[in-house]
Known about the structure:
By secondary structure, the protein is of the alpha/beta class. It is 35% helix and 26% strand. The chain has a domain at 13-73 and 191-257 and 351-412: 3-Layer(bba) Sandwich (FAD/NAD(P)-binding domain). It is built from 13 helices and 16 strands. It is globular, with a radius of gyration of 21 Å.
Amino acid sequence: MTYQSPISPGYSWYEATAGERPDYPALDGDRTCDVAIIGGGFTGLSAATYLAQAGVNVVLIEQAKFGDGASGRNGGQMGTGQRAWAEEQEEELGLERAKALFAIAEDAKRNMHDFAAEHGIDIGYCPGQLSVIHKKRYRDDYRRHAAVMAEKFDYPHISYMDREETAQRVGSSFFHGGIRDTGTGHIHPMKLVIGTAKAAAAAGAQIFENSKATGLKQANGKATVTTERGTITADRVLLAVNAYGNGGLEPVSAAHVMPIRSFIGATVPLPADLDAKVIPGGESIDDSRFVVRYFRKYGDGRLLFGGREAYTADNPREISTHIRKQIAEIYPELADIGIDYAWGGSVGITMPRTPFVREVMPGVTAAGGFSGHGVMLSHFTGRLYAEAVTGKTDRLQYYRDLKVPAFPGGRSFRKPMLTLALTWFAMLDRI
Length: 431
Ligand SMILES: Cc1cc2nc3c(=O)[nH]c(=O)nc-3n(C[C@H](O)[C@H](O)[C@H](O)COP(=O)(O)OP(=O)(O)OC[C@H]3O[C@@H](n4cnc5c(N)ncnc54)[C@H](O)[C@@H]3O)c2cc1C
């Protein structure tokens, strides 16, 4: 008989294990500030912290609870570099810019540890990342990637794994090989959200939950953000709504950042014999599919498996059934494993899968579209935005300079066209 989870669908294992998750008030009344931030995920909360620490008067609003967007529901994998491999970026942007973008990502990684240490946040860091190959013909690319990273990008932490080593480290002979990255790892994302919100409030940022921005206007050098019960008038606005903006506030970012639903299932704790076999080194894993699968053994020995993607807003009725099927392809012995928690979230993707950072109205900067690679990058982008506002550095310019075209098809056809394209890529992944 199929395992029946006692936990309601949609409630994540992260919520269950994050510890105390404080409530923050809703915005009530009118405020004036230097910077208004819309969106309480990693990008917005981190920007609020760094701005407030620099003495900037900042007000942040979140439509739900902090972390209810992608930031509290993701795979927790930090990864290395940007979403695209550094050598691909070199081909497109030249070595100097590719190196600068790689350096930003390495700083983002260091910054995450420093931030957690500074603010006493237990982010549940576990070291190690495996990227594994589901098609034989990718092996040379992965082998070359390990060499290029060491030789050209001074990153010596990636090694190529042959089929045997991969099987031993994954605990399954499903993959043809892979790379092992000892210079990165994975975290408990909700703990980082909660800790960053506390840090922002402690630094003096005014932060509000259950306060949806319903309007954004610009006049006479000031922006006004409207909510149901108040307004914020600010010199600048950071629009950090990522995949959860629907274009209602301004149309440009929604044309460039598209939501894709991705789902994660957390199994029951693995029985001792399987616990010893499945990912014995404790790394997080992603695979070489275009529609990527990502998994890790975490916490109390559960397998957290993410993969099924959908292009509609609703959760499919039976997330666990789909996830269990994908788990069983890799670990046939887990074909009947119980899945206690199953939840989904919206990943913000862009056409080239590089972040979208742009001034979309005078004084209004949108930042999002980290394309499944935002755990460390979005948090750090919040810092880069704060540094740009305070005139400390303008490394945000590297993101602003990236060419990110709008999705074709206009408002009505964008989504069906994307669905078609991604369904096509998902099919290619399978054959
Ligand atoms: C299932 C899943 C798995 C993922 N796995 C990984 C991974 O393993 N590694 C990785 O690097 N990345 C991963 N990602 C991506 C990563 O989580 C995101 O890139 C990152 O969290 C983006 O942070 P953000 O603050 O920009 O956006 P979000 O966290 O999405 O925050 C945007 C916030 O804006 C709020 N908002 C929207 N509109 C309004 C409004 N009108 N008024 C007020 N508030 C508003 C939303 O409620 C939301 O909380 C994953 C994402 C998902 C969904």
